[in-house]
Amino acid sequence: MGRWSNCPDEVESLKNITINDLKKLCYLQPNVYLNRNIFWTNQIGERTSSITIVIDTSDTDGYITFDYTYNQSQKINYKVRLITRPSNLGNGLLWFFVCPSTQKVCRKLHLNSGYFLHRTAFNGVYYEKQLQSKKWREWERMFGSFLDDKIYEEMNKKHFKKYYKGKPTKKYLQLMKKINSRKVVNFEDIEKALLL
């Protein structure tokens, strides 16, 4: 008889709420009281889920209340504290969540086991890289630049700037360095890797 699968959850696949998302939606500002909905969509743009949030802030702190139904049966309503800290650039304040479970200060909360919490609050949740086999990690170390299409995706983004005032940008030079490193792979290394 086979064993039960013990596939842990991956951080990258969990629904999340970030401070940046709230700021882009203009929900996170000092001295506001907002009652809004947040929606998640699938890859083709259809809404898959939503939650109601209530944001109540003062100048430097506040609360966000999450109100939603989990697994179509369990009603959940709880508050997460919001705090601010001075920017290290000296230009204003940055907002943060305070995880109600771990009390960690963070900018992203993940949904697992019914609650939006800091990722360390969950047992058995790992990053995708942590679940890769040693052999796959070795392959990625040796041939990662060949396997990574994100370099080309980033260079072809709508507002990506290759040049500024006639000079190549730092980001463009970094990406070109990664692309040029692809030409240096020795195919004997590929044969050795296949024999491991």
Automatic annotation (TrEMBL):
**Under which name does UniProt file this protein?**
Uncharacterized protein
